[in-house]
Design brief:
The structure holds 2 protein chains of 2 kinds. Chain A has helices at about 1-45, 50-80, 85-115, 120-150, 155-180, 185-220. By secondary structure, chain A is mainly alpha-helical. Chain B is mainly alpha-helical. The chains are: A mainly alpha, B mainly alpha.
């Protein structure tokens, strides 16, 4: 009984940290859902209270994500956990945190700059945002697998890389359509900026997936 | 308290210190090298368990002198221990994991050469075989073990942090167990030769438990090992755990376990006895060294990964260290014994005399040894094993009996069963039947070891050797230790005779 108590105390710290990592990754997925819905609302209504609501929600997620990341990193250092992989795990968390920042940043930019997106491009923007959100979700799954089931990391990373290529294709197609339209150049440039910003999410997710594959090789040794 | 004894004791303590500085790396090196366990934690756990192993389990073998027991004079044992300790110290200073037992065996060979004793060819074979067999065996065990562990972990799908916590605990447990064995198995080498001249007397600790004189002696030896761990083992730990090959914590654990398996399977007489008792085929016992097992396991894992990340230069230095350790230790011991004897006037060895008397020749004939040529040596006393064997060779004897057998029968071993000393015998170790047989021989004197053994066996079946089968090996070994103990008790310590 005493030993059981001791062992449970010993592992309670680890369990709490595991939960924090899971919550942090949940926040990345949540940020994606908020981003997708916010963009859909913006395309339908333009600047609106509902959109601002999503913006606040995204900011809260980003803040909580930062808190969790700092706590996890401090714990990993303070308790000298996973000495061989600590640097990799911290880099992974930073990479995932960057994704949340980009989600939030894009929503803020839309709110500040209020781009006027013609209806003809709505489907293109929606398709791009759905693809990048799926791409980020895949890398979240890859990150979860890195912690629990390294055999699955490769599958999720491959999906991320595939979706990134898809996002590139959609982005290119969308930019071609924008520049082929009769819109004034400044509006074309403005819209191109947002296409690139959204596509940047997929690029960042791919960077994390690439790094994850290396971390996984190291974890296997 | 005899100051000379205290002075001689210091070499045992130094050997203990060297052992701690070097061998602790075998059990905690990979854990510390992979930064899974802090050095202070490793050193603390290691020290505690070394002390416990030495005092609790080491005392069980208190009457076994360890390898240094073959050195028959205290000053000689002092110098052999000092030479071995010095060699291990130098190697440790260079961060090389060396085999302490090989340093000791090297020193004993130095003593053998100085004292004109014959070095058993088995001993030499043991040294050479260890260099080759032990690292290979450890590597061969480590590789499949790591693959198996990797497969189990992959199926278990443990969270990285949970795996980290379990591995950490596993490393500490494996290290603690290894440290306990280190204390229990090596304390005989550190302090064994001083058991008979222990300057301590037993006392009770707060009425809770009694600390015998031997336990106190072993406690001091174990503390010396612990001091070695704290003060000097870090460098070797880092060499073993990180410098040869960068390793993951799980690999680190596999190395410790592979090393323990090699030690258990290929060096455990207990396991051999168990298998033989169950009628199963036994695994041949191979001489093993824990340092070599650890290095072999690490290199094995490196080769599994293609060998590209192994620091081969370091491995060459380590392997070179294994060859030079017994050589340096033996040479230093030989030279130092010369000074100790001729400059400081110390008796560094007791002459062992051999005689082929009538009863010896009869005994040899009983064992179907052709004594036709040996009869020419009848009655002559030889002052050293070498002189005896040279004479045997010159006599034209070409019998099949090994020289060891001839020496065993011809070695003079004067024993007088002094009735006053009988109560001093360890009544817990020797059975009542064995004690009673010794009592019945009270007042009698013997010239040869085998005469005493025969007389005791005639009085009690508990002194009878069993047939030379594997299943009886442990029993006979224990009986031999007890007979040696009786001979030492009634012969007095060699120098005081």
């Amino acid at each position: 009984m005493y030993l059981q108590k001791k062992a449970s105390h010993l592992f309670s710290g680890t369990r709490s940290l595991e939960k924090q990592i899971d919550e942090f990754l949940d926040k990345v997925s949540e940020a994606g859902m908020v981003f997708g819905r916010a963009l859909r609302v913006y395309l339908n209504q333009g600047p609106s209270e509902e959109y601002d609501g999503f913006l606040t929600q995204a900011a809260d997620i980003e803040r909580r994500g930062d808190e969790l990341r700092r706590t996890i990193e401090a714990e990993l250092h303070a308790r000298t956990l996973i000495p061989d992989l600590r640097a990799d795990v911290m880099a992974l968390l930073e990479g995932m945190d960057h994704l949340v920042n980009v989600y939030e940043g894009d929503l803020f930019r839309i709110s500040i700059q209020s781009p006027d997106i013609p209806k003809a491009f709505h489907s293109g923007f929606l398709e791009l945002s759905e693809t990048v959100v799926s791409c980020v979700d895949s890398v979240v799954l890859a990150a979860r697998a890195f912690f629990r089931d390294i055999d699955a990391v490769r599958d999720h990373s491959s999906k991320t890389i595939f979706l990134e290529t898809e996002a590139d294709k959609i982005g290119t197609r969308l930019q071609r359509a924008i520049f082929a339209s009769s819109l004034p150049l400044e509006r074309k440039m403005h819209l191109r900026y947002f296409v690139e910003r959204i596509d940047e999410l997929a690029n960042a997710a791919e960077d994390v997936a690439d790094a994850l594959q290396i971390y996984t090789i190291k974890r296997r040794i | 308290m005899d100051l000379t004894v205290l002075f001689f004791l210091t070499s045992g303590l130094l050997l203990g210190w060297s052992l701690g500085a070097n061998d602790a790396a075998n059990v905690f090196g990979t854990a510390v090298g992979t930064r899974m366990v802090r050095f202070v934690t490793a050193a603390t756990v290691c020290s505690i368990f070394v002390v416990l192993g030495a005092v609790i389990s080491g005392a069980g073998a208190a009457h076994t002198l360890g390898a240094l027991g073959s050195v028959n004079a205290l000053a000689g044992a002092f110098m052999a221990a000092l030479s071995a300790a010095g060699t291990v110290y130098v190697m440790t200073k260079w961060g090389l994991p060396v085999s302490t037992s090989q340093a000791i065996v090297g020193a004993i060979i130095g003593w053998n050469l100085f004292s004109d004793s014959i070095t058993d060819s088995q001993t030499l074979l043991k040294i050479v075989a260890t260099w080759v067999a032990c690292p290979i065996l450890a590597g061969l065990i480590a590789v499949p073990l790591l693959k198996l562990v990797a497969r189990v972990l992959s199926a278990a799908k443990l969270h990285l942090l949970r795996l980290d916590a379990y591995t950490r605990m596993a490393l500490v447990f494996a290290g603690a167990f290894g440290a306990y064995s280190l204390g229990a198995n090596n304390i005989a080498n550190v302090m064994g030769v001083f058991v008979e001249v222990s300057p301590f007397t037993g006392f009770s600790v707060a009425g809770l438990f009694k600390l015998s004189s031997i336990q106190q002696l072993f406690l001091i030896g174990a503390i010396a090992i612990a001091v070695g761990v704290f003060t000097y083992s870090k460098r070797v730990m880092v060499t073993v755990g990180a410098s040869i090959l960068p390793m993951s914590p799980v690999s680190a654990w596999v190395v410790v376990i592979a090393h323990s398996i090699v030690l258990f399977v290929f060096a455990s007489q207990g396991l051999e006895h168990l298998l033989a008792s169950a009628g199963l085929p036994t695994i041949p016992l191979v001489p093993v060294s824990s340092s070599q097992a650890v290095v072999g396991a690490v290199v094995g894992l490196g080769l599994m990964r293609g060998g590209g990340d192994i620091d081969w230069e370091l491995v060459r230095n380590i392997a070179g260290g294994w060859v030079t350790t017994p050589l340096i230790s033996g040479t230093v011991c030989f030279v130092a014994l010369f000074f100790l004897q001729n400059v400081f006037g110390q008796q560094v060895y007791r002459e062992v005399h051999y005689v082929l008397s009538e009863p010896v020749l009869a005994k040899l004939e009983e064992h179907e040894v052709d004594t036709t040529h040996l009869a020419s040596l009848k009655g002559r006393e030889f002052r050293s094993a070498r002189a005896f064997m040279n004479a045997v060779e010159d006599s034209g004897y070409r019998g099949e009996a090994p020289g060891r057998k001839l020496r065993d029968f011809a070695e003079l071993s004067h024993v007088f069963i002094d009735p006053e000393k009988i109560p001093n015998l360890d009544h817990e170790w020797l059975s009542p039947g064995q004690i009673s047989a010794v009592e019945k021989l009270g007042g009698k004197a013997f010239t040869f070891r085998w005469q005493l053994a025969g007389a005791l066996a005639a009085l009690s079946p508990q002194w009878s050797r069993k047939s030379d089968e594997t299943v009886n090996k442990l029993y006979n070994k224990e009986l031999d230790s007890k007979l040696d103990y009786v001979i030492r008790t009634f012969a007095g310590f060699p120098e005081r005779r």
